[in-house]
DNA sequence: CACTCATCATACCCGCGAGTATGCTATCGG
DNA sequence: CCGATAGCATACTCGCGGGTATGATGAGTG
Protein backbone atom coordinates (compact mmCIF):
# COMPACT_ATOMS: atom_id res chain seq x y z
CA UNK A 1 0.00 0.00 0.00
CA UNK A 2 1.11 3.57 -0.66
CA UNK A 3 2.60 6.12 1.64
CA UNK A 4 0.04 8.03 3.65
CA UNK A 5 -3.13 6.00 3.60
CA UNK A 6 -4.87 5.66 6.94
CA UNK A 7 -4.92 9.24 8.19
CA UNK A 8 -5.71 10.77 4.81
CA UNK A 9 -9.51 10.77 5.03
CA UNK A 10 -9.35 12.36 8.47
CA UNK A 11 -6.73 14.83 7.29
CA UNK A 12 -8.86 15.83 4.33
CA UNK A 13 -11.89 16.29 6.55
CA UNK A 14 -9.93 18.41 9.00
CA UNK A 15 -8.51 20.64 6.29
CA UNK A 16 -11.89 20.89 4.62
CA UNK A 17 -13.36 22.04 7.90
CA UNK A 18 -10.69 24.70 8.25
CA UNK A 19 -11.15 25.96 4.70
CA UNK A 20 -14.94 25.96 4.93
CA UNK A 21 -14.61 28.04 8.05
CA UNK A 22 -12.49 30.55 6.20
CA UNK A 23 -14.32 30.91 2.92
CA UNK A 24 -17.60 29.01 3.14
CA UNK A 25 -18.60 25.89 1.22
CA UNK A 26 -18.88 27.53 -2.17
CA UNK A 27 -15.64 29.44 -1.74
CA UNK A 28 -13.62 26.24 -1.44
CA UNK A 29 -12.74 24.00 -4.35
CA UNK A 30 -11.82 20.35 -4.15
CA UNK A 31 -8.37 21.34 -5.39
CA UNK A 32 -7.95 23.63 -2.38
CA UNK A 33 -8.75 20.87 0.06
CA UNK A 34 -6.47 18.46 -1.73
CA UNK A 35 -3.63 20.98 -1.99
CA UNK A 36 -3.80 21.86 1.69
CA UNK A 37 -3.57 18.16 2.47
CA UNK A 38 -0.54 17.72 0.23
CA UNK A 39 -2.26 15.68 -2.45
CA UNK A 40 -4.14 16.38 -5.69
CA UNK A 41 -7.71 16.15 -6.77
CA UNK A 42 -7.27 12.69 -8.20
CA UNK A 43 -6.41 11.18 -4.88
CA UNK A 44 -9.03 13.20 -3.10
CA UNK A 45 -11.63 11.36 -5.12
CA UNK A 46 -10.24 8.03 -4.05
CA UNK A 47 -11.32 8.90 -0.49
CA UNK A 48 -14.51 10.87 -1.01
CA UNK A 49 -17.06 10.36 -3.75
CA UNK A 50 -18.18 13.97 -4.05
CA UNK A 51 -18.02 17.42 -2.59
CA UNK A 52 -21.15 16.70 -0.60
CA UNK A 53 -19.36 13.76 1.02
CA UNK A 54 -16.50 15.91 2.26
CA UNK A 55 -18.95 18.49 3.58
CA UNK A 56 -20.66 15.79 5.60
CA UNK A 57 -17.29 14.55 6.80
CA UNK A 58 -16.30 18.06 7.84
CA UNK A 59 -19.52 18.33 9.85
CA UNK A 60 -18.79 15.06 11.61
CA UNK A 61 -15.29 16.28 12.33
CA UNK A 62 -16.70 19.40 13.94
CA UNK A 63 -19.25 17.54 16.03
CA UNK A 64 -16.68 15.05 17.26
CA UNK A 65 -14.10 17.69 18.10
CA UNK A 66 -16.63 19.76 20.00
CA UNK A 67 -17.71 16.84 22.15
CA UNK A 68 -14.14 15.76 22.78
CA UNK A 69 -13.22 19.25 23.94
CA UNK A 70 -16.16 19.42 26.29
CA UNK A 71 -15.47 16.10 27.91
CA UNK A 72 -11.77 16.71 28.18
CA UNK A 73 -12.45 20.03 29.87
CA UNK A 74 -14.99 18.55 32.28
CA UNK A 75 -12.85 15.55 33.13
CA UNK A 76 -11.31 16.68 36.40
CA UNK A 77 -14.04 19.04 37.48
CA UNK A 78 -16.60 18.24 40.13
CA UNK A 79 -18.32 21.44 41.27
CA UNK A 80 -21.68 21.44 39.42
CA UNK A 81 -21.93 25.19 39.01
CA UNK A 82 -18.41 25.42 37.71
CA UNK A 83 -19.05 22.56 35.31
CA UNK A 84 -22.08 24.36 33.91
CA UNK A 85 -20.28 27.66 33.56
CA UNK A 86 -17.32 25.97 31.92
CA UNK A 87 -19.46 24.48 29.18
CA UNK A 88 -21.30 27.75 28.64
CA UNK A 89 -17.95 29.48 28.32
CA UNK A 90 -16.77 26.90 25.85
CA UNK A 91 -19.93 27.28 23.80
CA UNK A 92 -19.49 31.02 23.67
CA UNK A 93 -15.86 30.73 22.74
CA UNK A 94 -16.53 28.13 20.08
CA UNK A 95 -19.76 29.43 18.58
CA UNK A 96 -19.44 33.17 19.02
CA UNK A 97 -15.87 34.32 19.52
CA UNK A 98 -14.23 32.02 17.02
CA UNK A 99 -14.96 33.44 13.60
CA UNK A 100 -14.12 30.29 11.73
CA UNK A 101 -16.64 28.16 13.60
CA UNK A 102 -19.24 30.89 13.27
CA UNK A 103 -18.82 30.87 9.52
CA UNK A 104 -18.94 27.10 9.41
CA UNK A 105 -22.12 26.75 11.43
CA UNK A 106 -23.84 29.56 9.57
CA UNK A 107 -23.08 27.77 6.35
CA UNK A 108 -24.46 24.57 7.79
CA UNK A 109 -27.76 26.27 8.49
CA UNK A 110 -28.00 27.52 4.94
CA UNK A 111 -27.13 24.08 3.63
CA UNK A 112 -29.62 22.44 5.94
CA UNK A 113 -32.33 24.21 4.02
CA UNK A 114 -31.52 22.09 1.00
CA UNK A 115 -29.91 18.91 2.28
CA UNK A 116 -31.77 16.53 4.52
CA UNK A 117 -28.71 14.59 5.64
CA UNK A 118 -26.90 17.72 6.74
CA UNK A 119 -30.03 18.68 8.63
CA UNK A 120 -30.42 15.40 10.48
CA UNK A 121 -26.73 15.36 11.32
CA UNK A 122 -26.94 18.76 12.92
CA UNK A 123 -30.14 17.86 14.73
CA UNK A 124 -28.49 14.86 16.31
CA UNK A 125 -25.58 16.97 17.47
CA UNK A 126 -27.88 19.66 18.79
CA UNK A 127 -29.84 17.10 20.79
CA UNK A 128 -26.65 15.85 22.39
CA UNK A 129 -25.71 19.36 23.42
CA UNK A 130 -29.16 20.03 24.78
CA UNK A 131 -29.17 16.88 26.88
CA UNK A 132 -25.71 17.72 28.13
CA UNK A 133 -26.91 21.11 29.32
CA UNK A 134 -30.02 19.67 30.92
CA UNK A 135 -27.89 17.27 32.91
CA UNK A 136 -25.45 19.97 33.95
CA UNK A 137 -28.18 22.38 34.98
CA UNK A 138 -30.12 19.79 36.96
CA UNK A 139 -26.97 18.85 38.85
CA UNK A 140 -26.60 22.40 40.09
CA UNK A 141 -29.67 22.08 42.31
CA UNK A 142 -29.95 19.76 45.28
CA UNK A 143 -32.66 17.18 44.57
CA UNK A 144 -35.21 18.79 46.89
CA UNK A 145 -34.84 22.26 45.38
CA UNK A 146 -34.62 21.15 41.75
CA UNK A 147 -37.11 22.77 39.35
CA UNK A 148 -39.43 20.60 37.31
CA UNK A 149 -37.90 18.82 34.32
CA UNK A 150 -39.82 20.88 31.81
CA UNK A 151 -38.72 24.11 33.46
CA UNK A 152 -35.11 23.05 33.17
CA UNK A 153 -35.65 22.07 29.58
CA UNK A 154 -37.31 25.38 28.80
CA UNK A 155 -34.44 27.32 30.35
CA UNK A 156 -31.90 25.36 28.33
CA UNK A 157 -33.87 25.86 25.14
CA UNK A 158 -34.06 29.57 25.71
CA UNK A 159 -30.38 29.78 26.48
CA UNK A 160 -29.46 27.87 23.34
CA UNK A 161 -31.76 30.10 21.32
CA UNK A 162 -30.07 33.13 22.82
CA UNK A 163 -26.66 31.78 21.82
CA UNK A 164 -27.83 31.68 18.23
CA UNK A 165 -29.01 35.24 18.53
CA UNK A 166 -25.72 36.36 20.01
CA UNK A 167 -23.85 34.55 17.28
CA UNK A 168 -25.87 36.41 14.73
CA UNK A 169 -25.28 39.73 16.40
CA UNK A 170 -21.58 38.96 16.48
CA UNK A 171 -21.70 38.74 12.71
CA UNK A 172 -22.94 42.30 12.46
CA UNK A 173 -21.34 43.88 15.50
CA UNK A 174 -17.93 42.25 15.63
CA UNK A 175 -16.95 44.16 18.75
CA UNK A 176 -19.14 41.91 20.87
CA UNK A 177 -17.23 38.90 19.64
CA UNK A 178 -14.01 39.54 21.48
CA UNK A 179 -12.36 38.08 24.53
CA UNK A 180 -13.24 41.12 26.60
CA UNK A 181 -16.98 40.73 26.07
CA UNK A 182 -16.90 37.01 26.67
CA UNK A 183 -17.53 37.31 30.38
CA UNK A 184 -20.53 39.59 29.86
CA UNK A 185 -22.06 37.17 27.40
CA UNK A 186 -21.48 34.19 29.65
CA UNK A 187 -23.03 36.04 32.59
CA UNK A 188 -26.09 36.85 30.51
CA UNK A 189 -26.50 33.25 29.44
CA UNK A 190 -26.05 31.96 32.99
CA UNK A 191 -28.76 34.33 34.08
CA UNK A 192 -31.11 32.81 31.52
CA UNK A 193 -30.36 29.35 32.86
CA UNK A 194 -30.75 30.38 36.50
CA UNK A 195 -32.86 33.52 36.58
CA UNK A 196 -33.32 33.71 40.34
CA UNK A 197 -29.82 32.89 41.55
CA UNK A 198 -26.68 35.02 41.71
CA UNK B 1 -40.48 53.95 -24.87
CA UNK B 2 -41.50 50.30 -24.72
CA UNK B 3 -44.39 48.67 -23.03
CA UNK B 4 -43.80 47.84 -19.38
CA UNK B 5 -40.93 49.96 -18.26
CA UNK B 6 -41.46 51.65 -14.92
CA UNK B 7 -42.63 48.77 -12.74
CA UNK B 8 -40.18 46.27 -14.19
CA UNK B 9 -37.28 46.78 -11.75
CA UNK B 10 -39.68 46.45 -8.81
CA UNK B 11 -41.34 43.44 -10.39
CA UNK B 12 -37.99 41.76 -10.93
CA UNK B 13 -36.99 42.43 -7.33
CA UNK B 14 -40.26 41.05 -6.02
CA UNK B 15 -40.02 37.88 -8.08
CA UNK B 16 -36.37 37.49 -7.18
CA UNK B 17 -37.32 37.67 -3.52
CA UNK B 18 -39.97 35.00 -3.99
CA UNK B 19 -37.62 32.68 -5.85
CA UNK B 20 -34.76 33.20 -3.41
CA UNK B 21 -37.16 32.26 -0.64
CA UNK B 22 -38.01 29.04 -2.42
CA UNK B 23 -34.62 27.82 -3.57
CA UNK B 24 -31.94 30.04 -2.08
CA UNK B 25 -29.61 32.42 -3.90
CA UNK B 26 -27.54 29.79 -5.64
CA UNK B 27 -30.58 27.78 -6.63
CA UNK B 28 -32.00 30.62 -8.69
CA UNK B 29 -30.67 31.64 -12.10
CA UNK B 30 -31.10 35.00 -13.73
CA UNK B 31 -33.18 33.25 -16.36
CA UNK B 32 -35.60 32.08 -13.66
CA UNK B 33 -36.12 35.59 -12.34
CA UNK B 34 -36.56 36.97 -15.84
CA UNK B 35 -38.95 34.19 -16.88
CA UNK B 36 -41.14 34.65 -13.82
CA UNK B 37 -41.34 38.33 -14.65
CA UNK B 38 -42.34 37.63 -18.24
CA UNK B 39 -39.10 38.81 -19.84
CA UNK B 40 -35.77 37.28 -20.81
CA UNK B 41 -32.26 37.54 -19.51
CA UNK B 42 -31.33 40.21 -22.00
CA UNK B 43 -33.82 42.67 -20.64
CA UNK B 44 -33.07 41.70 -17.08
CA UNK B 45 -29.58 43.04 -17.59
CA UNK B 46 -30.95 46.36 -18.80
CA UNK B 47 -32.34 46.86 -15.29
CA UNK B 48 -29.73 45.22 -13.06
CA UNK B 49 -26.03 45.07 -13.67
CA UNK B 50 -25.37 41.74 -11.99
CA UNK B 51 -26.78 38.98 -9.86
CA UNK B 52 -25.41 40.70 -6.79
CA UNK B 53 -27.44 43.78 -7.68
CA UNK B 54 -30.71 41.86 -7.78
CA UNK B 55 -29.89 40.18 -4.49
CA UNK B 56 -29.43 43.59 -2.90
CA UNK B 57 -32.66 44.77 -4.48
CA UNK B 58 -34.50 41.72 -3.14
CA UNK B 59 -33.20 42.52 0.34
CA UNK B 60 -34.44 46.08 0.08
CA UNK B 61 -37.79 44.77 -1.10
CA UNK B 62 -38.02 42.55 1.96
CA UNK B 63 -37.05 45.30 4.38
CA UNK B 64 -39.52 47.75 2.89
CA UNK B 65 -42.36 45.25 2.81
CA UNK B 66 -41.77 44.25 6.41
CA UNK B 67 -41.87 47.83 7.65
CA UNK B 68 -44.93 48.65 5.58
CA UNK B 69 -46.77 45.67 7.03
CA UNK B 70 -45.89 46.63 10.57
CA UNK B 71 -47.01 50.21 10.20
CA UNK B 72 -50.17 49.30 8.35
CA UNK B 73 -51.05 46.86 11.12
CA UNK B 74 -50.32 49.32 13.89
CA UNK B 75 -52.16 52.17 12.22
CA UNK B 76 -55.48 52.07 14.02
CA UNK B 77 -54.25 50.53 17.25
CA UNK B 78 -53.72 52.47 20.44
CA UNK B 79 -53.44 50.05 23.37
CA UNK B 80 -49.68 49.82 24.05
CA UNK B 81 -49.69 46.20 25.19
CA UNK B 82 -51.73 45.16 22.18
CA UNK B 83 -49.42 47.08 19.87
CA UNK B 84 -46.42 45.27 21.30
CA UNK B 85 -48.03 41.88 21.07
CA UNK B 86 -49.16 42.57 17.53
CA UNK B 87 -45.65 43.26 16.35
CA UNK B 88 -44.26 40.23 18.15
CA UNK B 89 -46.93 38.12 16.48
CA UNK B 90 -46.04 39.57 13.10
CA UNK B 91 -42.38 38.88 13.67
CA UNK B 92 -43.11 35.29 14.56
CA UNK B 93 -45.38 34.84 11.60
CA UNK B 94 -42.93 36.45 9.22
CA UNK B 95 -39.64 35.10 10.52
CA UNK B 96 -40.59 31.72 11.91
CA UNK B 97 -43.84 30.39 10.50
CA UNK B 98 -43.35 31.50 6.92
CA UNK B 99 -40.87 29.12 5.38
CA UNK B 100 -40.02 31.33 2.47
CA UNK B 101 -38.90 34.24 4.62
CA UNK B 102 -37.00 31.88 6.87
CA UNK B 103 -35.06 30.60 3.90
CA UNK B 104 -34.45 34.09 2.62
CA UNK B 105 -33.11 35.47 5.88
CA UNK B 106 -30.97 32.42 6.51
CA UNK B 107 -29.40 32.92 3.12
CA UNK B 108 -28.81 36.56 3.92
CA UNK B 109 -26.84 35.59 7.00
CA UNK B 110 -24.65 33.26 5.00
CA UNK B 111 -24.13 35.92 2.35
CA UNK B 112 -23.37 38.53 4.98
CA UNK B 113 -20.28 36.53 5.83
CA UNK B 114 -18.85 37.41 2.44
CA UNK B 115 -20.50 40.62 1.31
CA UNK B 116 -20.11 43.81 3.25
CA UNK B 117 -22.96 45.64 1.57
CA UNK B 118 -25.42 42.87 2.33
CA UNK B 119 -24.22 42.98 5.91
CA UNK B 120 -24.62 46.71 6.39
CA UNK B 121 -28.03 46.62 4.75
CA UNK B 122 -29.24 44.00 7.18
CA UNK B 123 -27.70 45.80 10.12
CA UNK B 124 -29.59 48.96 9.25
CA UNK B 125 -32.84 47.04 9.04
CA UNK B 126 -32.15 45.23 12.28
CA UNK B 127 -31.50 48.52 14.05
CA UNK B 128 -34.84 49.86 12.85
CA UNK B 129 -36.62 46.82 14.20
CA UNK B 130 -34.80 47.05 17.50
CA UNK B 131 -35.66 50.70 17.97
CA UNK B 132 -39.24 49.94 17.06
CA UNK B 133 -39.43 47.31 19.78
CA UNK B 134 -37.77 49.56 22.34
CA UNK B 135 -40.35 52.23 21.71
CA UNK B 136 -43.23 49.78 21.89
CA UNK B 137 -42.00 48.18 25.08
CA UNK B 138 -41.34 51.50 26.82
CA UNK B 139 -44.85 52.64 25.96
CA UNK B 140 -46.31 49.70 27.83
CA UNK B 141 -45.19 51.08 31.18
CA UNK B 142 -46.47 54.29 32.76
CA UNK B 143 -43.59 56.76 33.02
CA UNK B 144 -43.15 56.32 36.76
CA UNK B 145 -42.97 52.52 36.58
CA UNK B 146 -40.83 52.33 33.47
CA UNK B 147 -37.62 50.29 33.75
CA UNK B 148 -34.29 51.90 32.95
CA UNK B 149 -33.50 52.40 29.28
CA UNK B 150 -30.71 49.84 29.29
CA UNK B 151 -32.96 47.26 30.92
CA UNK B 152 -35.51 47.74 28.17
CA UNK B 153 -32.80 47.50 25.54
CA UNK B 154 -31.43 44.33 27.12
CA UNK B 155 -34.87 42.73 27.16
CA UNK B 156 -35.43 43.59 23.51
CA UNK B 157 -32.01 42.26 22.55
CA UNK B 158 -32.65 39.00 24.34
CA UNK B 159 -36.07 38.67 22.74
CA UNK B 160 -34.66 39.28 19.27
CA UNK B 161 -31.91 36.78 19.96
CA UNK B 162 -34.51 34.26 21.03
CA UNK B 163 -36.43 34.79 17.80
CA UNK B 164 -33.32 33.80 15.90
CA UNK B 165 -33.01 30.72 18.02
CA UNK B 166 -36.62 29.78 17.49
CA UNK B 167 -36.22 30.33 13.77
CA UNK B 168 -33.32 27.98 13.78
CA UNK B 169 -35.17 25.37 15.77
CA UNK B 170 -38.04 25.66 13.32
CA UNK B 171 -35.66 24.62 10.59
CA UNK B 172 -34.94 21.37 12.37
CA UNK B 173 -38.22 20.73 14.15
CA UNK B 174 -40.79 21.90 11.62
CA UNK B 175 -43.68 21.05 13.91
CA UNK B 176 -42.97 24.11 16.02
CA UNK B 177 -43.39 26.30 12.95
CA UNK B 178 -47.12 25.93 12.55
CA UNK B 179 -50.08 28.16 13.27
CA UNK B 180 -50.98 26.11 16.31
CA UNK B 181 -47.69 26.76 18.05
CA UNK B 182 -47.68 30.41 17.19
CA UNK B 183 -49.45 31.45 20.36
CA UNK B 184 -47.04 29.50 22.55
CA UNK B 185 -44.07 31.10 20.87
CA UNK B 186 -45.52 34.59 21.17
CA UNK B 187 -46.29 34.03 24.85
CA UNK B 188 -42.72 32.92 25.44
CA UNK B 189 -41.31 35.97 23.72
CA UNK B 190 -43.65 38.34 25.58
CA UNK B 191 -42.45 36.79 28.80
CA UNK B 192 -38.88 37.63 27.86
CA UNK B 193 -39.86 41.22 27.20
CA UNK B 194 -41.85 41.54 30.42
CA UNK B 195 -40.61 38.86 32.80
CA UNK B 196 -42.52 40.02 35.87
CA UNK B 197 -45.93 40.77 34.39
CA UNK B 198 -48.77 38.47 33.37
C1' DC C 1 10.41 -12.17 -7.17
C1' DA C 2 6.16 -11.47 -9.55
C1' DC C 3 1.45 -10.12 -8.77
C1' DT C 4 -2.20 -7.30 -6.72
C1' DC C 5 -4.47 -3.55 -5.37
C1' DA C 6 -5.10 0.66 -2.89
C1' DT C 7 -3.20 5.27 -3.24
C1' DC C 8 -1.93 8.95 -5.79
C1' DA C 9 -0.78 12.20 -10.12
C1' DT C 10 -1.78 14.08 -14.76
C1' DA C 11 -4.64 15.44 -17.98
C1' DC C 12 -8.77 15.73 -19.49
C1' DC C 13 -14.18 16.52 -20.06
C1' DC C 14 -18.27 18.98 -19.79
C1' DG C 15 -22.36 21.20 -17.88
C1' DC C 16 -23.82 25.17 -15.98
C1' DG C 17 -24.92 29.72 -15.54
C1' DA C 18 -23.28 34.63 -15.39
C1' DG C 19 -22.62 38.00 -18.44
C1' DT C 20 -22.39 40.09 -23.56
C1' DA C 21 -22.98 41.36 -28.54
C1' DT C 22 -26.25 42.62 -31.57
C1' DG C 23 -30.23 43.78 -33.60
C1' DC C 24 -35.46 44.53 -33.32
C1' DT C 25 -39.55 47.39 -31.94
C1' DA C 26 -42.53 50.61 -30.32
C1' DT C 27 -43.08 54.81 -28.17
C1' DC C 28 -42.07 59.78 -27.89
C1' DG C 29 -40.16 64.33 -29.08
C1' DG C 30 -40.07 67.28 -32.90
C1' DC D 1 -44.41 61.30 -40.13
C1' DC D 2 -39.54 60.41 -38.86
C1' DG D 3 -35.29 59.56 -36.48
C1' DA D 4 -33.77 58.64 -31.60
C1' DT D 5 -33.62 55.62 -27.85
C1' DA D 6 -35.04 52.84 -23.89
C1' DG D 7 -36.75 48.30 -23.24
C1' DC D 8 -36.55 43.96 -24.95
C1' DA D 9 -35.30 39.25 -27.42
C1' DT D 10 -31.98 35.98 -29.53
C1' DA D 11 -27.99 33.84 -29.64
C1' DC D 12 -23.84 33.63 -28.30
C1' DT D 13 -19.03 33.44 -25.21
C1' DC D 14 -16.41 31.69 -21.65
C1' DG D 15 -14.50 30.73 -17.15
C1' DC D 16 -15.08 27.96 -13.40
C1' DG D 17 -15.05 23.94 -10.95
C1' DG D 18 -16.96 19.26 -10.08
C1' DG D 19 -16.08 15.01 -11.65
C1' DT D 20 -13.50 11.20 -14.64
C1' DA D 21 -10.18 8.35 -17.43
C1' DT D 22 -5.89 6.52 -17.28
C1' DG D 23 -1.63 5.32 -15.92
C1' DA D 24 2.42 5.32 -12.39
C1' DT D 25 4.11 3.77 -7.83
C1' DG D 26 5.12 1.08 -4.13
C1' DA D 27 3.79 -1.53 -0.09
C1' DG D 28 2.10 -6.04 1.32
C1' DT D 29 1.38 -11.23 -0.16
C1' DG D 30 2.40 -16.02 -1.66
How would you characterize this protein structure?
The structure is a homodimer of 198-residue chains. The N and C termini of chain A lie far apart (61 Å). The relative contact order of chain A is 0.10. Chain A has nine helices and no strands. With 198 residues, the first copy, chain A, is mainly α. Chain B binds a DNA duplex (30 and 30 nucleotides) through residues 1-5, 8, 29-31, 39-47, 49-51.
- Shape, principal axes of CA atoms of chain A: elongated
DSSP summary: helix tally of chain A: 9
Instruction: Compute the number of strand runs of chain A.
Output: 0
Rounded to the nearest angstrom, the radius of gyration of chain A is 19 Å
Please provide the ordered H/E string of secondary-structure elements of chain A: HHHHHHHHH
In terms of DSSP E residues, the strand content of chain A is under 5%
**Structure classification of chain A:** mainly alpha
Stretches of chain A where pLDDT is under 50 for at least 5 consecutive residues are none
How helical, in percent, are the residues of chain A?
Answer: over 70%
Question: What oligomeric state is this?
Answer: homodimer
Report the sheet with the most strands of chain A, covering strand number, pairing sense and barrel closure.
none
Give the distance, in angstroms, between the N- and C-terminal Cα atoms of chain A.
61 Å
Specify which chain pair forms the largest interface: A-B, 32 and 32 residues
- Average pLDDT figure of chain A: 92
Amino acid sequence: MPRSAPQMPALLAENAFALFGERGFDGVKIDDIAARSGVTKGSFYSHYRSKRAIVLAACQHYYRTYQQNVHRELAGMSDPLLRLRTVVTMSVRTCVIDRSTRVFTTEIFALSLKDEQVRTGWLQFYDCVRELYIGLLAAVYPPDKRPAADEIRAAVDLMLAAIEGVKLRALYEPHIACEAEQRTIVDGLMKILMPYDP
